[in-house]
Amino acid sequence: MTWINMLSPLQWALLLAIPPAILSLYFLKLKRHESVVPSTMLWKRAIEDLHVNSLWQKLRKNLLLYLQLLFVGLLILACIRPGWSGMNRLGERRIYIIDHSASMQASDSKPSRLDVAREKAMKLIQDAASNDSAMVIATSDRASVEQGFTNNRSLLEKAVERIEPTAQLTDVSEAFRVAAGLANPGRMSFEDNVDIQVAEAIPATVYFLSDGAIGELDESEFGQLKIEYVPIGDADTSNAGILSFAIQRTETQDVQANPGAISAFARMIQHGSQAIECTASLYWNDSLVDAQKVQLQPEQETGIEFELQGVESGTLKLQLDHPDALPLDNVAYAAIRPDRQVSILLVTAGNSALETALGTQRITQIAKVQIEPISYLASQDYQTNASGSKFDLILYDACSPEKMPAASTLFLGGVPPADIQPPARENSPENSPENSPENSPENSPENSPENSPEKKPDTDSGQTTDAPANAVEPDAVPKWTFGELSGPVIVLDVNRSHPISQYLEMSSVGIVEARTVRPPSSGAILMIADTGPVGAVAPRGPYQDAVLGFDIVRPSAEGFEINSDWGIKRSFPVFVLSAVENLAGGITEASAPTVQPGLPVQLLLSNRFEKYQIVDPKGNIETIQRSGDGRFLYTKTEQLGVYEVRAEGLEEPVERFCVNLFSNRESNLKVGLELKTGAESIAATTNTIRARQEIWRWLLLLAIVFLMFEWMVFNRRIFV
Amino acid sequence: MMAKLERMELVSRKIFRGRMKGERRSKRKGQSVEFADFRNYVSGDDLRFIDWNLFARLDRLYLKIFLEEEDLHFYTLVDDSLSMDFGTPTKFMTAKRIAAALGYIGLCRGDRVSVSTFSKASLPLVVRGRSSSHRLIGQLQSAECQSPAPSMEESVRRFCMKNTGKGIVVLITDLMNKTGYETALKMLVAREMDVYLIHIMSPEELEPNLTGDLKLMDAEDFDMREVSISASLLQRYRLTLNAFIDSARSFCNRRSIGYVSVRSDQAIDPLINDYLRSRGLVR
């Protein structure tokens, strides 16, 4: 027999006050009916022995009082919920980890997997012994402790009730780390050189309620945790989902004639054993613009493409019209970035080819170009503007600044300053597999003699491009490295996969002298010559730096001398346009960035406005203050949909970004019946959940029967 | 009913002197037809009563003495305290009916009938002859329970002081007197009267129909008693009541007081004809 404390101390005090209250009422007998009799003489004699006003005589043989006390006693007994179970749960510690990721919104278990998980958690809480302490952790891609260790069941149940569904991904390792940390406190206190363990580790049982859409667990994180995996959902639930949805401006010959041509690409998958046919509907600003019939084969990805015309700005929504258990992944969002005029600074001693290329109609549409001499670099105006993010892109033609500005840069022949080096490894969008050097045409560094760090003194720039080994952290990325000028140089190949260099044709370009340029591992090589890479691009925080190892014209004693004929080639303005588009903040990139729910998105905001407002899909507005370098990391991306960044005084948003599920793991609703932890696996423990046998309902029923009996006795008390 | 009453007479277990010629044998010697004794003739005696046959045989003059027949004094003392105003019909109503019936019997027999209540013990109605029956009934009809009523002892004392004659006294009361009834009865017995006690109890007193937690209030002195009615308490009440009745009966028997217990809901006709006749009060 075990007991469960159902009441708070205040409620207990009130309940325990009832029996004395009943006794007091019997003592006082406040309500007596008056009755006139001929004489109280005989009554007086009759009650002389009984002493009706005596305290204990009043209670003697008073069946009504006994029945009332019995009734209250049964009520109190029912409130502490006596019960029993087959397991000895004395002083057990329990941790309830409830998965509330996107896949838990699946409705294969009615009403939803999360509801079922909450219900099972409630049963487990009720199943626990009265002195068991438990905690509740909600997990998605992060863990949150909803309730710390307590044996107050109402608090635990409220914590379970509080867990709301999210559209986030699943990463349970944090939850298990939290659980292990709280269950096995490893803290030590050092006092007078004596180690004192602050809290003793107590084994705990983790009840992990999830659909199993998680990765592999690290067994070493468990510590003294005993894992009980409670699978939620059906094992063979089929579900179709969108894995990616992207848009791109269609490159046509006549851009001006057809400025709103957009290509939309989507990739979707059907998890299940049967092929389905459904309709993929494409909405532009909530208006249906196109639809396609899609055949989805089981466990196979299928791609579709839409061609849209006249779409200049706005949001696109792709919807799979197929009713399945998880509607969350049947919708995907994409946004066309609003046009924005960027600021470009060209610092040059004079370069008519570059100035002409920057003066094309297409560039003047999207950019405002400011041309300054090299002496401008020393001016205070430059210092202010460069550090204040006034410019989106700065072109250094045959020159270089003392320190890198707060803007993207393009160096033509110049060697960037030392602070171009990235401070640490960063996961930027450019660090994608297709942009990595390994995919570049030159993916064999050993072919290049300049690649070996031991040979490299960069004498002309004076900077140390080859830092001592002991000055570099072991996991630091390789730095930019620049070779010496040599020539003539013939460009052998360009990186067709990079948007800056994808349209370049450099085979006919002659270069007198060039130096090799090697980016860090996060960068990409743009063009490679017979001497090695001569053009590369690499991220630097929110900015990108592109460096060409040669210049077009260079100042000389006679004026200018031509170093390359690239300036008169057709590919040069193409390169300049691509550089403006991509380095100046992706101005002409049609697609707004998209992230998965809960992941942060980095915004590069123009320095023209002090404050911006971020409007989420539900219309909630958050005002943010622009930082000095215009970067802002937005983390409240829990909702699926299109977020807009608005600036004061502008009708159109200045930026958009999308939050999409795009997770194959979350779309796969097949419930795993075991958790993999390295070489071993934890089987589902559905059958071990025992219902606690309780008798409080019977006690309550008995109390009501006694109440009815008492009422009957009250009405017939003369016969008692 | 009236005819039956006219054929009845009050029974006196003692012989009293009357005041007037009546139908009751008296202690006096007189002129009835019933021979009592002889005595010597003394001068002045009425010569009509000399037994001449005896003079002829003995040659001495003897006077024949006959028993006298006089009237009987019949007193009815009715308790008119508020405790009598209970029951259906009330005990006081039953008491008045009994008093009227007994008084009518006495009037029919030429007795001297006196009716009084506790509150008017010193102002009795004294009537004689059947023609006075309407006065008797009218007096009783106008009687009401009085508040506050004098105690039984005081009323009987006043009654005794006022009525010096001897006769039958019928005391109709419920004996609900917290100062006791013994002194009062002893005073009546001391007056050498033929005392009858008619003890009236209402059904509500004999079988109280009370439930719950009550505050009982005495109708006479407003005394309050808190009781929680239970079976044991009711049982104890019954025992107390029986003991009270037994003690009254025993007290009366020891002092030759005729004790008659009457329920207030008894019909008057069988009560007089059967019940009181069987108890020897009338015949």
Summarize the structure in words.
The complex is a heterodimer of chains A (720) and B (283). By secondary structure, chain A is α+β, with helices and mostly antiparallel strands. Chain A has a 9-stranded mixed beta sheet with strand order 18-17-19-20-27-26-25-22-23. In chain A, strands 5-4-3-8-9 form a 5-stranded mixed beta sheet, with helices on both faces. Helix content of chain A is 20%, strand content 30%. In chain A, strand 4 and strand 5 (143-150) form a beta hairpin. Chain A is elongated and about 145 Å long. Chain A folds into 4 domains: 9-31 and 38-85 and 696-719, no CATH class; 93-236 and 669-691, von Willebrand factor, type A domain (Rossmann fold, 3-Layer(aba) Sandwich), CATH 3.40.50; 342-583, Rossmann fold, CATH 3.40.50; 594-659, Immunoglobulin-like (Sandwich), CATH 2.60.40. Chain B is an alpha/beta fold and 283 residues long. Chain B has 2 domains: 23-70, no CATH class; 73-278, Rossmann fold. Helix content of chain B is 35%, strand content 27%. Chain B has 9 helices and 10 strands. Chain B has helices spanning 2-6, 52-58, 91-108, 133-142, 152-162, 182-190, 203-206, 231-254, 268-278; strands at 21-40, 62-70, 73-78, 112-117, 125-128, 168-173, 194-201, 213-218, 224-228, 258-263. In chain B, the strands form 3 sheets. Chain B has a 6-stranded mixed beta sheet, with helices on both faces. A two-stranded antiparallel ribbon of chain B has the order 1-2. In chain B, a hairpin with a 7-residue loop joins strand 4 and strand 5. In chain B, helix 5 (152-162) runs parallel beside helix 6 (182-190). The longest helix of chain B is centred in the last third of the chain and has 24 residues, at 231-254. Chain B is elongated and about 90 Å long. In chain B, 39% of the residues are buried. The interface between A and B is large, with 29 and 42 residues. Strand 1 (33-37) of chain A pairs parallel with strand 8 (213-218) of chain B.
